[in-house]
Design goal:
Layout (H helix, E strand, L loop, with lengths): L3 H8 L3 H9 L6 H13 L6 H8 L4 E6 L6 H15 L3 E6 L4 H13 L4 E4 L15 E4 L7 E5 L1 H14 L4 E6 L5 H14 L4 E7 L8 H9 L4 E3 L3 H13 L9 E3 L16 E3 L2 H17 L7 E4 L2 E3 L7
Parallel strand pairs: 1-2, 1-3, 3-4, 4-5, 5-11, 6-7, 6-8, 8-9
Antiparallel strand pairs: 10-12
Helix pairs in contact: 1-2, 1-3, 5-11, 7-8
Length: 320
């Protein structure tokens, strides 16, 4: 088995320098880092996470707690988190809570047993876990008071949708709003109402979950109270709305326009392709890991909130 001493001899640097490069414990010059990593690969060096944890007191592992991996938005974010964590020398333990707060509590206990160095958490309902984990926690998408977090600018996204509805000349709109417990749903709706106020008549505003399961009340409203445009709580809701309308003989966008939110990976492949607001998946994941590593290195200080910009993506389901 290759040791760091062998790598040090081949690279002609100290074992301390090799350790700093491989464990990312202290900064080294880009040239030295590249040299050491190249030699390590050539020698087939495989670090022992267990041995590293004994020496450093850290597991080089991050826990990731997600609410519902059947929603395509979350796997896209998780993939970005995993890639960034791996680049920084960390493994990832991923737990899906199936939108269940009891499973979320169990998930915190599970990652705690693995003695993770930090936790990236996409909350089910944005309430602090009890008891709080000892490891640093960073939230994604759904901020929790008192914790570091990164989220998209959902309110700006709501205003973007309003601007496009007005630009298209729509006079009436229906809203399928997301769960009130979620920051993203509240902010999207608030931005939408701000933008539409006095310009477009909102004929109905009905609750929906962030899933393909449209409540019966929502289905009845969609078919029973026609509007020029329907704004889905997210892309899944918008896609299901399109299917309900199509089954009833309504054409999209000729009879009624539809808009989503998120730009999930297959939003452009449904028919008609979905107009939506794109969240920056990769930056959400990268920023979460950067924020967590800063908090691991410096546990003190006030919580930091990062808000990332969103982008309007015009497609066939809504034509201006």
């Amino acid at each position: 088995m290759t040791t760091i001493s062998e790598i040090a001899r081949r690279a002609r640097v100290s074992t301390a320098t090799v350790s700093n490069v491989l464990n990312r414990t202290k900064p080294v010059s880009p040239h030295t880092r590249e040299l050491v990593e190249t030699v390590a690969r050539e020698l087939g060096y495989t670090p022992s996470r267990f041995a590293r944890s004994l020496k450093t007191g850290r597991s080089a592992t991050i826990g990731l707690i997600a609410p519902d991996l059947t929603n395509p938005f979350f796997p896209a974010v998780v993939q970005a988190i995993e890639r960034k964590a791996r680049e920084q020398g960390y493994g990832l333990i991923i737990v899906d809570c199936h939108d269940d707060t009891a499973e979320e509590t169990a998930a915190f206990e599970l990652v705690g047993e693995y003695r993770v160095d930090g936790i990236v958490w996409i909350p089910v309902d944005e309430t602090l876990p009890e008891p709080m984990p000892t490891a640093p926690v960073v939230t994604v998408d759904r901020p929790v008071p008192g914790l570091d977090g990164v989220t998209s600018d959902h309110r700006a996204g709501g205003r973007m949708i309003a601007a496009e509805i007005i630009r298209a000349g729509h006079r009436t709109a229906g809203i399928l709003r997301g769960p009130e417990a979620h920051h993203s749903a509240r902010e999207r709706r608030a931005g939408l109402l701000e933008g539409l106020s006095g310009r477009v008549e909102i004929l109905w505003d009905v609750a929906a979950s962030f899933s393909l399961d449209l409540p019966e009340a929502a289905r009845e409203t969609i078919l029973g109270e026609p509007v020029d445009c329907i704004i889905g709580a997210n892309d899944l809701v918008a896609v299901r709305t399109g299917q309900v309308l199509s089954a009833a003989g309504r054409r999209v966008p000729e009879d009624i326009a539809i808009v989503g939110f998120d730009d999930i990976p297959w939003a452009e492949f449904v028919h008609p392709a979905l107009s939506t607001v794109r969240q920056p998946y990769r930056r959400l994941g990268q920023s979460a890991i950067d924020l967590l590593l800063r908090r691991i290195a410096d546990p003190g200080g006030e919580p930091e909130r990062i808000v990332l910009p969103v982008e309007w993506i015009p497609r066939a389901s809504h034509r201006a």
